[in-house]
Design goal:
Number of helices: 1
Radius of gyration: 33 Å
Helix content: under 10%
Structural class: mainly beta
Largest sheet: 11 strands, antiparallel
Number of strands: 44
Strand order of the largest sheet: 15-16-17-18-31-25-24-21-22-23-26
Shape: globular
Oligomer: single chain
């Protein structure tokens, strides 16, 4: 609403009513500041008040057009701060610390402890020591618990390598040193690398992990490759699984020590516990079909949950271990092979497809354990062929086993794990095309690899969960992304063949502003640009870059 024009102000004196007799015998009223006036006969002679105190009056009717009033100039919206990296030692843990703004513009912090020496807690780093993010007006701090699985196995964070052998052996990065480096730290995107030679069956399996952070996203990507080339053409002699990433971190917030209220996972079907808090006697459901694999635990009392969500669907990369697939389509009341459950209503601890908190549970009591790990079948590391979970597919894990998951931490009431599952389903259903430039359909099969494989979805780089295309000469491009399966939250593009950051980016012909409409980082060593669009992307839109001098 526009306010009445304000001119001057009333003098701080009392007012008096003055009457003027009109020719038709009626009187008109006028309000003026009081002052001395001469009076003669029936006429009232009103002397005008001196400036600068004129009366405020309503505008008179007019037939002139009303011109719009220009609104006051608004300051430009604030741009988003860049991602940052620092070398710090919180609690004497020698660490690389990454800070970035998430989808809500709130700061998140990841503390990655270096893996070249023993850490103060007795493990050897190479993990997420601490994660910090906003919950309402407060910051939730989640630090590694230091829980132990026995001598030499201590978990001071999350993201360790763990591989169990069919012969009872266990290989883990918790008790070996490795190397680390910042692969890339850009304005809004960063890649951090850990490497180890993980001994499995006497063979050094070269293992590479990348953490990917991006402005505008809540959940970093954890990508891993096991390279068993050193075993020769026959692969490893030990049938080995993968429970990587593995760890124990206070995802309910430091000092909370909340009971675990439930667990859930997805492979071909969705499993979830039905009674809270979680105990070995909790009823469950394993009937619903599923697309994208995930595993999670939650605490309703702490309003917290943590999970992992794969960047590919279950058919594109099989996940899950053990033999619990016999209960697909069942609930606890009609469970299959009930004789193997022993005293538990939940599946026995050795028969969960993913390792969560089951080994810390008793027969009847709830648990506060914050253990969380992934799961692949025996043979998933270093085998020329192995059966996937469910025995419906055969995979190859020699010389490489590669996969990526989103590390998800947030409010249980917000359904953050389920939301990320939906996001990946939408990513896999997008359609990318290019009228200037080209869609990338092949690339390395994972981190630490130089081979080339066909992407499961054209234009989708599942290693980092981003869309990928090649720019034309001079960095020009025009690509169309159709979010046919559902809206995307702040989609990220990896653009090859770039010599600088975009200078004239537009979406559907509308110019975009850097650090506000999009967040870009340039990697000169690879001639690539990482580009995150700051918007909910629904339907089909055209992203264009036409530099002035292509």
């Amino acid at each position: 609403m526009m306010s009445r024009p304000f001119v001057g102000q009333w003098a701080p004196k009392s007012l008096m009513w003055m009457l003027v007799l009109t020719g038709c015998g009626e009187s008109a009223r006028s309000v003026v500041p009081a002052h001395e006036v001469p009076v003669t006969g029936l006429a009232v002679d009103i002397q005008p008040p001196p400036p600068p105190f004129p009366p405020v009056t309503e505008p008179l009717p007019t037939t002139d057009p009303v011109l719009p009033t220009e609104p006051p100039a608004q300051p430009p919206p604030a741009t988003w701060a860049p991602l940052s990296w620092a070398h710090e030692q919180p609690g004497q843990y020698n660490s690389d610390v990454y800070r970035w703004l998430d989808a809500q513009g709130e700061q998140r912090t990841a503390v990655l402890t270096r893996n070249n020496a023993m850490d103060p807690g007795g493990s050897h780093g190479g993990m997420l020591r601490q994660f910090r993010y906003r919950v309402g007006q407060q910051e939730r701090v989640s630090t590694g618990t230091g829980a132990s699985s026995g001598p030499g196995w201590v978990w001071n964070g999350w993201g360790y390598l763990v591989s169990h052998g069919g012969n009872g052996s266990v290989s883990t990065s918790s008790n070996i040193t490795g190397n680390y480096r910042q692969v890339f730290v850009g304005r809004h995107h960063a890649l951090h690398e850990f490497t180890w030679n993980l001994p499995i069956g006497g063979v050094p399996v070269k293992t590479t992990v990348h953490w990917f952070f991006s402005t505008g996203h809540d959940h970093p990507v954890y990508a891993v490759t096991f390279d068993s080339s050193a075993a020769g053409s026959g692969g490893l002699s030990v049938s080995s699984d993968s429970r990587t990433p593995y760890g124990d971190i206070a995802w309910d917030g430091d000092g909370t020590q909340a009971w675990v209220d439930g667990v859930k996972w997805g492979d071909k079907r969705r499993f979830f516990s039905r009674d809270e808090p979680l105990t070995a006697q909790s009823k469950w459901d394993y009937t619903q079909l599923n697309v994208v694999p995930y595993a999670a635990a939650w605490s309703r009392s702490a309003d917290a949950e943590m999970g992992m969500v794969q960047t590919l669907d279950w058919l594109q990369h099989n996940t899950g271990g053990t033999w619990f697939h016999n209960n697909w389509g069942h609930v606890s009341e009609n469970r299959a092979e009930s004789d193997v459950f022993g005293s538990w209503m939940m599946p026995p601890n050795w028969n969960w497809p993913y390792q969560l908190c089951q080994y810390e549970m008793s027969d009847t009591q709830p648990t506060r354990s914050k253990r969380l790990a992934w799961g692949l079948m025996y043979g998933a590391v270093g085998s020329p062929s192995y059966y996937g979970y469910g025995y419906e597919s055969v995979g190859v894990s020699h010389p490489y086993q590669s996969y990526s998951v989103f590390m998800v931490m947030g409010r249980q009431s917000g359904g953050v794990v389920d939301a990320q599952v939906s996001e990946v389903e939408h990513l896999l259903g997008t359609q990318l095309s290019a009228s200037l430039g080209s869609v990338v359909t092949q690339g390395p099969g994972g981190v630490g690899r130089t081979d080339s494989v066909n992407y499961a979805v054209a234009g989708y780089n599942s290693t980092y969960g981003v869309h990928e295309f090649q720019a034309a000469s001079g960095g020009a491009f025009s690509v169309t992304l159709n979010a046919a399966a559902g809206a995307l939250q702040n989609p990220t593009f990896l653009i090859r063949g770039m010599d600088a950051l975009p200078t004239s980016l537009s979406l559907d012909g509308v110019p975009l502003t850097a650090d506000l409409d999009y967040f870009a980082s340039f990697d000169s060593s690879t001639r690539r640009v990482w580009l995150t669009l700051h918007r909910t992307w629904s339907g089909s839109h055209i992203l264009t870059h036409l530099p002035a001098n292509p």
